[in-house]
Amino acid sequence: MAKITASVYTSHVPAIGAALDLGKSSEPYWKKVFDGYEFSKTWLKENKPDVIFLVFNDHATSFSLDMIPTFAIGTAAEFEPADEGWGPRPVPKVIGHPRLAAHIAQSVIQQDFDLTIVNKMDVDHGLTVPLSLMCGQPQAWPCPVIPFAVNVVQYPVPSGARCFALGQAIRRAVESYDEPLKVQIWGTGGMSHQLQGARAGLINAAWDNAFLDRLIADPKGLSTMPHIEYVREAGSEGIELVMWLIARGAMADIARGPPPKVVHRFFHVPASNTAVGHLILDNAA
Amino acid sequence: MSLEKPYLDVPGTTIFDADQSRQGYWLNQFCMSLMKAENRARFKVNERAYLDEWKMTEEQKQAVLARDLNHCIALGGNIYFLSKIGATDGRSFQQMAGSMTGMTEEEYRDMMVKGGRSVEGNRYLGEDGDAQPHRQPQGAAGRTKGA
Does A3-282 carry CATH code 3.40.50.720? Predict the structure, then answer.
């Protein structure tokens, strides 16, 4: 039986990827960001999963206005880094896990979550920046990755409660898989940021830190927070944080297991327009 | 019954909902076309001719030519789509976001390094924060306004 061993949460700011790709990671501005992930890189090496289930959002890259799936699971054998207009990031191609992905799709759909199944999808910074932050600049990513894209671009986006319940369904799906795989689930995006209008540049560090506190200790309560509070308090693009609730919902304590161990927590302002938040929660064995 | 929109009272903020998306459909799809290198090249050679290949309104085309991102958003554009124009111009997300505040690039960058824009006074229309309509444009441009 496969199991969820840990969850990782991180912002996925595109400028972080650009800083790394352009060799700027030791500049003082960026070093403060990357230093927060030094521990995490070592932790990931020592706790290497067999598969990463990576929750992210596509930023008008693979999904234009042609098609806007609310929840889309990548079931392909591989996924190319996308050209988002600046040219593709010079990072390894993402190797999928078609068999586990298809199993999760079937199980989660049978649990009444109507996922879209995607066999062709380039992956943008939402997926590759978290991998870069956690793995550095390897020749190949350390394990297969199942991309799971959530629509947080065009409203209506899914509610926090729906995301939290989906995480629980994903946990059940993983646990019903017949191979003994160690699976990590990552939730990405956020934290507070706004990229548009006269309110661009909004940061709310107090709100972000309260979000981290509640994500650890009171995820169920947090999941009932309405979208308007994310927008008002954390900026229009802060809505990405609903994706963190998918990963949190997949942890053992939500299924009456022991509470997770907080292995690492980091918060920094700014990376470009954005507050960077990062958390690693380990499922007690 | 029309859709509930509890987000209309947030200053300096446009939520990309179904109505915005419908209004901005061709504007945003034009932006998507710039994800291909050959289209970026064609756009750069003659912006007006390239825009005329799309079923955009004249006002949308003028907003793109002027690189007025606030105007583009008012006409249904979404920042993740509009960022493809910025990428074509070689501009970062920070430059694009900053351009919508009236601040210079340096002023905006300094604001971010100092911890970003405060939410105080910027939660609801009618408060007195720096993102409120009566305080635009921001930065030096605002201080010299009307001078």
Answer: no
User: ipTM greater than 0.90, yes or no?
Assistant: yes
pLDDT at B6 over 90: yes
Residues B23 and B87 in one domain: yes
Range of the domain at B30: 18-91
Q: Which residues contact A206 (CB under 8 A, 6 or more apart)?
A: none
Q: Are residues B41 and B85 in the same domain?
A: yes
Q: Are residues B85 and B121 in the same domain?
A: no
Nearest residue in chain A measured CA to CA from B17: A155
- Beta-strand (E) ranges in A20-70? 51-56
Based on the fold, state whether residues B39 and B72 are members of the same structural domain. Answer: yes
CB distance from A67 to chain B under 8 Å? no
The pLDDT-based confidence of A285 (bands split at 50, 70, 90) is low
- Interface contacts (A, B; CB < 8 Å): 164
List the single residue in A64, A155, A226 with the smallest CB-CB distance to B15.
A155
Q: 3-state DSSP call for residue B140?
A: helix
Q: What is the pLDDT of residues A108-123, one digit of tens each?
A: 999 999 999 999 999 9
| B77 and B128 assigned to the same domain | no
Q: Which of A40, A3, A12 is CA-nearest to residue A264? A: A40
- Does the distance separating the beta carbons of A196 and B116 come in below 8 Å? no
Q: How many CB atoms are closer than 10 A to CB A54?
A: 26
Which residues of A159-228 form beta strands (DSSP E)? 182-188
Residue-wise pLDDT for B15-51, tens only, equals: 999 999 999 999 999 999 999 999 999 999 999 999 9
